[in-house]
Amino acid sequence: MSPTPAFPPTRLTRRMLLKATTATAGAIAGAASPGVRLGVAGLLTVAALAGTGAAPGAAAAAPQALPAGCSGTSPITCRYAVAPGNYDVTVSIGGSSAGQTEMWAEARRLMLPATRTAAGAVATYSFTVNVRQPEGQPTGQGGTGNPGLDLRFAGAAPQVSAVSVKPAAQPLVAYLAGDSTVCDQPAAPYTGWGQMITTAVRAGVSVANYGDSGESSGSFLSNSALLPALVSKIRANDPVFIQFGHNDKQTSASAYRNNLTTMISRVRAKGGVPVLVTPPVRRLFDGNRLTSTALHVNGVGVNLPAEMRAVGAAQRVPVIDLTARSKALVESMGPSASAQLFLRSSVDGVTDNTHFSQYGASQMGGLLLQSIREQNLPLAAHLR
Questions:
Q1: Ramachandran quadrant class, 145 (left: phi over 0; alpha: psi -120 to 50; beta: rest)
Q2: Residue 383 in contact with residue 202, Cβ under 8 Å?
Q3: Phi, psi for 178 (deg, rounded to 5)
Q4: Can you give the pTM of this predicted structure?
Q5: pLDDT in the model for residue 275
Q6: Whole-angstrom Cα distance, residue 116 to residue 113?
Q7: CB 160, CB 70: distance < 8 Å
């Protein structure tokens, strides 16, 4: 259901520095053409990005032709006919002229923020990307997307000189279970925080976002495309981040607790590591303070974040209190400035105080990542 403000630069910018790796000619040159099946079967500021790559003078021979499977100019789109699974993707951006490139994968997952390259320079970055069909929301809301792997290079002057795609060898997968504030929203301006944390995750780890619009803790449990599908793919030590509350408007305290406990049990049964995430706030003010509805006290009087914290304590599961963190952020910005975290009619064509703008989603994702680091949760060691 929504977005957030930019990561605090001292904690979330430099520490998410992309680790670029210089690809060998063999690794990079062989981007597959759209018809080739490659086998079965990753919110930074530009200043923080550092890629490998030759100095301007040394890269004069940087290739100008697009890699196989790619077409267009702005954006440049690349499509690879791979089966669902996880893939290691290495890209080289840059060329003979100066460029500014950002990379998106599948259903609007940001992998590389807008990154500048000098004329004659090439920078190389690696990611692990989860490919599903449908590629966005598991129930197909908003469309099913294209089969295979889609990459999109946008920005002021996008450039891509090489792409390599190969099946990932048993990567760690971070699963997301949640609603429309989490999910891979297929169309702008709506953006889930799950679409923005992908820049922070190192190669060798993919993010599999099973968030789906409109889901409550109960409906997510019962839909075969959601929790059952997610659980069927969990491997030992895969973290599973569980956020529900926005759509539990009439859920009783006991039902909510039971639903969360059931999810925890099923994740643990497969060797996964459950992490509870309390829902981010809505932008509903009474004066300069958020209302109880904004803080997820539901229609039958249940304080859902408090119930989730209680389940976490009882089940000995880590809890990321995104409600408290987003409350502090939204209230610190105030009723007016906080609107930019959500959707505004003047900018987005719609006013929505639940769902996030791209900026808002990046801020919410930043709060989540900050908590992962502070609590030293399993994923922390795999963040850039």
A1: left
A2: yes
A3: -175, -160
A4: 0.85
A5: 98
A6: 10
A7: yes
Torsion, Cα of 89, 206, 11, 285 (10° steps): 120
Give the number of other Cβ atoms within 10 Å of residue 223's Cβ. 15
Give me the pLDDT at residue 90, please: 98
CB 242 within 8 A of CB 194: no
* Angle of CA points 357, 94, 135, to nearest 5°: 40
What's the pLDDT at 12? 30
Contact 279, 324 (CB under 8 A): no
The torsion defined by the Cα of 223, 233, 258 and 282, in degrees rounded to 10, comes to -70
Q: Which residue carries 């799950």 as its tokens?
A: 194
The reported pLDDT for the residue numbered 36 is: 34
The pLDDT of residue 64 is 62
- Torsions phi, psi of 156, nearest 5? -65, -35
Per DSSP, the chain holds a count of helices (H) and strands (E) of 8, 17
Q: What is the DSSP letter of 383?
A: B
- 75: preceding bond cis by omega (within 30 degrees): yes
Rounded Cα distance between 16 and 8, Å, is 11
Put the strands of the sheet holding 99-105 in their side by side order: 70-72, 76-80, 149-157, 99-105, 109-117
> Which regions of the chain are under pLDDT 70?
1-64
Contact 121, 53 (CB under 8 A): yes
pLDDT tens-digit profile of 56-84?
A: 333 444 446 899 999 999 999 999 999 99
Chain CA centroid to CA 306, Å: 26
Q: What does the block give as tokens for 297?
A: 């006290």
